[in-house]
Structure to design on (461 residues):
């Protein structure tokens, strides 16, 4: 079956991919399309914007963490219930791991056979823009590059001169532009854009972007490119094979402005294999949801809400009590910070946290770690058994007040160009790691967690 789809990729980061993608999703919705958004790579924040404007949860398609079959399975699972799929690329079109194709937007485009529209920042460029586009077109002819959209156009004559050069010398259509306008920039901070969950209302910005796109971009031509996508390649299902299990295991999921970094496919995998997800707010709720058998605390910005999290001492104590009783708890990055003794924010102020682990966390002045990692398990735990492997991603500014010890961790994390690091703190039945895992890389991790939650429930806890 053909699934109309398109990838909006940039020549580099910062060319306006997210703003343009949001606006084009809105334009498609106004034409009656049910739009399924996707984001290339491990990004959690851009996905929040696309979810906000589309009304459908944006999914991550990561060609480094996930196999070709898994990428296609996860894509097809959502695309089949939509009219058109819009995929925002990551960084520049050809930017992969260590100068290679692997993990790039181009890699994803070839896996999914998706046509690509290239976004070019035309600031301070004229005919040279054609040379740039020609380079992207010729660099890998297997990438189905179908056209160009220009950003930061200064005037009509500026647009006409670049459009003429690209269409004449590169023989690619230019579908339109966005004008130079500082008011179109999305707000940023230390991890990138501010999540849409915090930046409300977005209505003013969205209305402005939508109006400019309607006026300056040929939406019908974009739709035609998406509808002209090739047949999706054949693939073998590996994750959603069996009939969904009855939802008998209740997993509490931390979700509010402090914790909202989750791969939706991870949550879908949990649900498929028997989990019932019940959300709670570590800021507002005084107790955990009733009748739960496990807890999942994902990524986010606890350092920005440390005072509110700390003041909710009732919930912190409840989580510590459940941990001591052996309830399975899995935490990633921000979740690890929340389970520590204290968080010191960017101003050096220290706030008590849950105290499940005896280390504290401090915010640094620059990135502490960033990049893809291979995870090797060297000790059985609530997610995995010894010798299991999975792929993940790390991105954080915080650091521990001491070095991790091997007898308190279960993961050996390997990053290209660096020696193995210790991660995955394990105490009682609690596992906390800086690494963000995608269960599509190894579904056993999700199934093991559910099994351990079921075992905890069977003991009458």
């Amino acid at each position: 079956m053909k699934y109309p789809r398109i990838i909006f990729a940039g020549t580099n980061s910062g060319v306006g991919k997210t703003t343009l993608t949001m606006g084009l999703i809105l334009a498609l919705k106004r034409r009656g399309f049910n739009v399924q958004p996707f984001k290339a790579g491990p990004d959690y924040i851009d996905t929040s914007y696309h979810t906000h404007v589309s009304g459908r949860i944006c999914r991550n398609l990561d060609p480094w963490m996930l196999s070709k079959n898994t990428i296609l399975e996860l894509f097809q699972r959502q695309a089949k219930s939509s009219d058109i799929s819009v995929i925002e690329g990551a960084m520049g079109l050809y930017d992969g791991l260590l100068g290679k194709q692997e993990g790039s937007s181009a890699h994803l485009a070839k896996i999914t056979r998706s046509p690509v529209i290239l976004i070019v920042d035309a600031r301070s460029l004229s005919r040279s823009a054609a040379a740039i586009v020609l380079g992207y077109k010729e660099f890998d002819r297997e990438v189905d590059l179908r056209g160009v959209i220009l950003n930061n156009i200064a005037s009509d004559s500026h647009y006409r001169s670049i459009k003429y050069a690209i269409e004449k010398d590169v023989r690619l259509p230019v579908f339109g532009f966005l004008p130079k306008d500082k008011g179109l920039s999305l707000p940023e901070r230390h991890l990138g854009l501010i999540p849409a969950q915090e930046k409300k209302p977005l209505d003013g910005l969205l209305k402005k972007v939508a109006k400019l796109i309607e006026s300056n971009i040929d939406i019908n031509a974009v739709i035609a490119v998406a509808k002209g996508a090739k047949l999706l390649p054949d693939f073998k299902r590996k994750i959603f094979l069996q009939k969904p299990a009855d939802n008998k295991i209740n997993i509490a999921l931390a979700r509010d402005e402090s914790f909202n970094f989750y791969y939706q496919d991870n949550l879908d995998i949990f649900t498929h294999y028997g989990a019932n997800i019940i959300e709670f707010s570590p800021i507002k709720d005084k107790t955990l949801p009733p009748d739960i058998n496990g807890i999942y605390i994902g990524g986010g910005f606890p350092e920005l809400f440390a005072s509110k999290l700390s003041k909710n001492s009732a919930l912190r104590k409840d989580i510590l009590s459940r941990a001591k009783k052996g309830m399975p708890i899995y935490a990633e990055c921000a979740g690890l910070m929340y389970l520590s003794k204290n968080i010191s924010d960017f101003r050096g102020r220290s706030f008590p946290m849950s105290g499940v682990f005896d280390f504290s966390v401090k915010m640094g002045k620059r990135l502490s770690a960033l990049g893809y990692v291979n995870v090797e398990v060297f000790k059985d735990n609530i997610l995995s058994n010894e010798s299991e492997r999975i792929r993940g991603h790390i991105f954080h500014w915080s650091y521990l007040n001491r070095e991790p010890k091997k007898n308190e961790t279960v993961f050996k994390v390997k990053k290209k160009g660096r020696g193995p690091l210790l991660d995955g703190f394990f105490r009682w039945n609690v596992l906390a790691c800086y690494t963000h895992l995608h269960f599509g890389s190894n579904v056993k991790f999700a199934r093991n967690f559910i099994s351990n939650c079921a075992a905890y429930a069977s003991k009458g806890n």
The mean pLDDT is 91.
